[in-house]
Design brief:
single chain, 199 residues, alpha+beta, six-stranded antiparallel β-sheet, five-stranded mixed β-sheet, 3 helices, 13 strands
Length: 199
């Protein structure tokens, strides 16, 4: 399924990888997650991360249906990472559009330095300063990708925006999941449609 698309991602990582020793950056860890707008569920088929010459790894994500913004976003499924990648390869299926997308994402230069700069966040005992140690990749209809960094929901800053490539694939592969998705979101989609710009 979508063998050519997967092969392109794999080829990039194989040719760019000059070593595979895992290393953490001074014992730090960051949070990495994938978000999507509510009511516009996606299924992330492949997510691969690459720190050139250091580490190449996969992260299972699966279904993402929240959250792009608001009190719960941007946030979504993901996990901790000990190395910030240079590149992110991602491929997903959009339930609202019945389309497949793919993109090799070059992580912005000097992102690590930007994330390490202290930013104010609010806690139970007032305001505090801490690095922006949360890295979120947002996937929206139309193949829009947005990257954010933050240390608390509400103080995120956008660090990149790009367009994914639509690729071939059979929506019938997700027939049962699409049926469940439409049962839960048909009324919303009928009222609001599927905006592919403005994200």
């Amino acid at each position: 399924m979508k063998l050519l698309a997967l092969s392109l991602i794999s080829l990039f990582f194989i040719t760019s990888l000059t070593g595979c020793a895992a290393s953490s950056e001074a014992g730090r860890s960051w949070s990495f997650s994938v978000a999507a707008p509510e009511h516009y569920r996606v299924w992330v088929e492949h997510l691969e991360l690459e720190k050139s010459g250091v580490k190449h790894w996969r992260m299972p994500i699966g279904g993402v249906d929240c959250c792009w913004k608001g009190p719960d976003g941007p946030s979504g499924p993901g996990g901790p990472i000990t190395v910030l990648p240079d590149y992110i390869g991602i491929q997903w299926f959009s339930f609202s559009e019945q389309k497949y997308y793919q993109r090799l994402i070059p992580v912005p230069e000097h992102l690590k330095q930007r994330m390490e700069q202290p930013a104010t966040y609010s806690g139970a005992h007032g305001e505090h300063q801490a690095p922006r140690d949360m890295f979120v990749v947002g996937l929206a209809p139309g193949g829009q990708i947005v990257l954010w960094i933050m240390n608390q929901i509400g103080n995120e800053i956008e660090v990149a925006r790009m367009q994914a490539n639509e690729i071939g694939g059979d929506p019938n592969d997700y027939r049962a999941a699409t049926k469940r998705y439409l049962e839960a979101n048909a009324a919303y989609l009928k009222q609001h449609g599927v905006p592919t710009t403005g994200w």
